Amino acid sequence: NTKKVAVIVGSLRKESFNRKVAKEMIRLAPEGLELQIVEIKDLTFFSEDIENSPPQTWTDYKNQIQNSDAVLFVSPEYNRTIPGVLKNAMEIGGRPPKENSWKGKPGAVVTVSPGAIGGMGSNQTIRVAAANLHISMMTQPEAFIGTIKDKLQEDGVTVDEKTAKFLVTFLEAFKSWIEKF
Ligand code: FNR
């Protein structure tokens, strides 16, 4: 039976490298793993004042997470930590506590950057927030994809062979991780 993975991209940029990598992961996913991007761009800012009567966009978003078997974060690093839009989406998904949509799900994170260290700080801080949200994150392999501009093919969309191979290895490990739950 196919496992459904909700993919959350931590950048709203049209030409986002992270979105490109997320799309490549959708393409490269092994048999039995179905990845789908859950959009976060229409979510308003989280406030406790409205969490008990949330807007429809929040509810639709939470349902998409709830209906998935697992969650994959693909995100840039902003100032060595989680981009605000992603953090906001993590908060909305987890509130109120009795309706935490993330609860008990297996998860994984990939960070992508034009810089050399591949968003390592963001990768780590996403794990910190995920732990508190009761997401069981895969520990290995880690995926910090740095110098992404050099890893895209001339089409500007697909990744080079070595990166594709790594993503396949990562996705296979994630599939095994999900199957443990
Ligand atoms: C960045 N960028 C960045 N890169 C990085 O490796 N470490 C960092 O701490 C930061 N900080 C940072 C802060 C802010 C506010 C911006 C806008 C950018 C650069 C970032 O990696 C680059 O813009 C990526 O292209 C963003 O990812 P997407 O949009 O291409 O997916």
TrEMBL record:
Residues of the NADPH-dependent FMN reductase-like domain: 4-146
SUPFAM superfamilies: Flavoproteins (SSF52218)
Protein name (record): NADPH-dependent FMN reductase-like domain-containing protein
Organism: Kaistella solincola
Record field: transmembrane: none
Pfam families for the chain: FMN_red (PF03358)
InterPro entries linked: Flavoprotein-like_sf, FMN_Rdtase-like_dom, NAD(P)H-dep_reductase
Gene3D superfamilies in UniProt: 3.40.50.360
